[in-house]
From TrEMBL:
This is DNA helicase IV. GO terms for cellular component: cytosol. Gene3D superfamilies: P-loop containing nucleotide triphosphate hydrolases. GO terms for molecular function: 3'-5' DNA helicase activity; ATP binding; DNA binding; hydrolase activity. It comes from Blastococcus tunisiensis. Residues 467-531 are annotated as: Disordered. ATP binds at G211, G212, P213, G214, T215, G216, K217, T218. Residues 500-510 have a biased composition (Acidic residues). The keyword Nucleotide-binding applies. Keywords: ATP-binding, Helicase, Hydrolase, Nucleotide-binding.
């Protein structure tokens, strides 16, 4: 009897899986070709009315999206197989679902997001969910290059139970050890059970995901987005999904993940990009951002809007056709109370303010014109007063008075004027101290910062839009279309030959019988052909079906108000780590930051395993947190590299060159490199590193070479090698300096070095003192 050796068994497994995977690619090609053909058919259609245009656009979008998803699935199409105790056929798991032409009961490939795929991520020897064996399949292009098995059935392989809490440990570690590229990639092959639970959590309500550095919060947030789009496709296709991240650099870093999962219809934005048409990215001092982020600023903005609804300091005179009229403070107060009772929103109340002003001026004018010199009743008739009102409504002096008492305002005017004027600040913000108001004060024309965006949004909420002119224009346009449609119908009707109106022919339906002018006019209305994501991103008032916030601990109270307005259904996923909060306006605890807005309606989930940072580096970082961080949760490092992190003391004058020298040593290693440096040293260090290493970037471009960045800019990112410069300055210059240093140290996936000009602080005593390669 011959036994099969492990190599032969492996070869046989490879051959079996290759055959299956090749079949899957054949099926993928067929479906793709058919979808391309259908798309071509749709593009060839020439639609003649808005309804047909709309239908065609929907079909084109659907087929295009399908092709994008099929293309995205090409790389690593199938990565898993489940052999189940009670089923004869294996179940294959992949990036998308594929069924056979004849629609067999078991699909050829199950989408990783489908419920049937879940055991691939969550089955364990103790809770095997009916799975005997989980197989990880690795492919390069369309070739299967390896398979690795986990036996879950305790009867088959006694002793496997409890061996590891990780799913597919070998495959996972291989992924984690790989060099980084400067762009985040998806983790669909190796999602871990605690992550899977959050990814598939119910869409309703607010889920807060707290986890230490490297626990996969960003990865989980993005895979949850893909999961929700799959599970609630129809709803989210209409309402859209928003992902908010801390910086433009971070958004670039994560930008490939969702497309690689076949999902392109998501809006990604940082806070400074949340106002359509505005890029608010001017730098801001942290202490200013902190004041701007306080909840009290909602009252300040409201007071600033109210202050624009003027009562006069002294009477104004205006002249109409040579007649002088006097408008008093009391008159102005009457106009204001009329307008205020007409609408809560300033700009929407403007027509009421204008009517009140016209009424007031007309009455004064009538009094003068019709005054009986003998002191009798007014000599003007009611009709005369009506005509006067029309005349007065056209008077430029009256328009100026309306503008004075109730100006049409934009959010930019309200907030710009407020911050640009100490007097306006003093009037609108008595609750702030002089020092705080001084912090807020800036040039009226200064560029906008990210912390201004919630203030602008708040102002917009209070201003509303006076769209009466636009609505009047739309009414006129609709009437024009109606008239044109009626003419068309009349012509059609008129062209019916009188002679042919036999009884039979008169039974025929004409265009006019089928359509009325209203319907025909409707057909000529414009169709908005932008995608939901495009429309959502361009519309400040858009409300999303789901909002995901990454690095949520950084958001100020005012930013929360803005985001909650974008998601009235409160279907939200917030991920972050209160131990990594860098901004003064951000959170030291979730309770503190969320309870004012959400009460206790949110639920907390935790991630506990650090997949990024090796144990050697985490041991050092944890000491920093213990020495002065703001809480957070410990995360267990999943691997160790055996490479000790080190510290090197340098002289103050030689610091920049020493950093460049150390960076050059790291640069010889595989993968990406970041130099993290306190803001005050940024320019000198960046210059020295750039002079030494080609491709050095300081603008957050992570793919060209070493990146030199301040701690605030590396939030959420990771690099194979990290060089931290002058840790004491990082702590001293940050608002929450220990957190900043903690963030900097935990960015490394492989190697960490610290260069310091003075004594090494005690909390970093765990660092070795000799830099390798010296
Ligand atoms: N299940 C997993 N399989 C493979 N890689 C994973 C897994 N989970 C996380 N990772 C990897 O670990 C790294 C850290 O993940 P991520 O950036 O999502 O963590 P984070 O919790 O957001 O970190 P931080 O708070 O420090 O920014 C990434 O490279 C990510 O791809």
């Amino acid at each position: 009897m011959s036994t099969v050796g492990p190599e032969a068994a492996q070869a046989a497994d490879l051959a079996t899986e290759q055959q299956y995977v090749s079949g899957l690619y054949t099926r993928l090609d067929e479906i793709r070709a058919r979808t391309v053909h259908r798309l071509d058919e749709q593009l060839a259609i020439v639609p003649h009315n808005p309804q047909a245009i709309g239908e065609r656009e929907a079909q084109v979008e659907w087929h295009t999206q399908r092709i994008v998803a099929l293309d995205a699935a090409e790389s690593g199409l199938c990565f898993g197989r489940l052999d189940r105790r009670d089923a004869d056929v294996p179940r294959y798991i992949g990036r998308i679902g594929l069924s056979a032409e004849d629609g067999e009961e078991e699909p050829l490939l199950v989408d990783w997001r489908a419920p049937a795929a879940q055991p691939f991520y969550t089955a364990t020897p103790l809770h095997d969910l009916g799975v005997r064996r989980r197989r990880h399949i690795r492919t390069r292009l369309r070739t299967v290059v390896s398979v690795s098995d986990e036996t879950l059935d305790l009867d088959d392989a006694p002793g496997t139970a409890g061996a590891s809490t990780l799913t597919g440990e070998a495959v996972l570690l291989a992924e984690l050890n790989a060099s980084r590229t400067g762009r985040m990639s998806d983790i669909v092959r190796t999602i871990q059970a605690e992550q899977d639970r959050i990814i598939r959590a119910d869409a309703g309500g607010v889920v807060v995901v707290q986890g230490g550095p490297g626990t996969g919060k960003t990865a989980v947030a993005l895979h949850r987005a893909a999961y929700l789009l799959y599970t609630h496709r129809e709803r989210l296709a209409r309402s859209g999904l928003l992902v908010v991240g801390p910086t433009p650099t971070f958004l670039r870093y994560i930008a490939d993940v969702l497309p690689s999962l076949g999902e392109t219809g998501v809006v990604l934005a940082d806070l400074g990009g949340l106002r359509p048409g505005l890029r608010a990215d001017a730098p801001e001092r942290p202490e200013v951002a902190e004041v701007k982020g306080r909840l009290v600023m909602a009252d300040v903005v409201a007071a600033a809007v109210r202050a624009r609804q003027a009562v006069l300091d002294r009477p104004v005179e205006l002249e109409i056709d040579g007649t002088r009229l006097r408008v008093t403070k009391a008159d102005a107060a009457r106009v204001r109370s009329r307008a205020r009772s007409a609408s809560r929103l300033h700009n929407e109340a403007r027509p009421a303010a204008a009517r009140a002003v016209i009424g007031l001026v007309a009455a004064k004018y009538a009094d003068k014109l019709g005054a009986d010199v003998l002191g009798g009743a007014n000599l003007l008739e009611a009709g005369d007063v009506g005509a006067l009102r029309q005349e007065i409504a056209a008077e430029p002096a009256v328009h100026r008075l309306v503008d004075l008492l109730w100006p049409r305002l934009t959010a930019e005017q309200v907030v710009g004027d407020l911050l640009g004027s100490p007097a306006r600040l003093a009037a609108a913000a008595p609750q702030l101290s002089d020092a705080e108001r001084t912090l807020l004060h800036r040039r009226a024309t200064a560029p906008w910062t990210a912390a201004d965006v919630p203030l602008l949004d708040e102002a917009d909420e209070l201003l509303g839009v006076d769209d009466s002119a636009q609505r009047a224009g739309e009414r006129r346009e609709r009437q024009r279309r109606l008239r044109r449609a009626q003419d068309t119908l009349d012509q059609l009707h008129g062209s019916r030959s009188q002679d042919s109106e036999t009884e039979e022919e008169s039974e025929e339906l004409s265009a006019g019988d089928l359509l009325d002018a209203e319907g025909l006019a409707g057909r000529h209305e414009e169709v908005d052909t932008r995608s939901v994501a495009e429309r959502a991103a361009a519309d400040r008032t858009w409300t999303y079906g789901h909002v995901i916030v990454d690095e949520a601990q950084e958001l100020s109270a005012m930013a929360w108000r803005l985001l909650l307005r974008r998601c009235p259904t409160r279907s939200m996923t917030l991920v972050g780590d209160v131990a990594q909060t860098g901004s003064a306006a951000g959170a030291a605890s979730w309770d503190e930051v969320l309870t004012p807005h959400l009460g206790r309606t949110w639920r907390l989930e935790q991630l506990t395993v650090n997949y990024r940072t090796p144990a050697e580096i985490m041991a050092v970082a944890d000491e920093v947190l213990a020495a002065g961080g703001t809480g957070g949760t410990a995360a267990q490092a999943v691997r160790s590299t055996g490479v000790p992190p080190w510290a090197e003391r340098v002289t103050e004058v030689g610091l920049a060159d020493a950093v460049a020298e150390a960076a050059a040593r790291f640069d010889k290693e595989d993968g990406t490199l970041a130099v993290v440096v306190a803001p005050s040293r940024l320019d000198a260090v960046a210059e020295a590193v750039a002079a030494r290493l080609l491709g050095t970037s300081t603008d957050g471009e992570l793919t060209t070479g070493p990146a030199v960045l301040p701690p605030g800019a590396v939030k959420g990112l990771e690099f194979d090698s990290v060089l931290v410069v002058d840790p004491v300055a990082i702590v001293d210059e940050g608002v929450r300096g220990h957190n900043d240093l903690y963030v900097a140290l935990t960015r490394a996936t492989q190697r960490l070095g610290v260069v310091h000009p003075g004594e090494l602080p005690a909390m970093l005593a765990g660092l070795g003192t000799s830099a390798p390669g010296r």
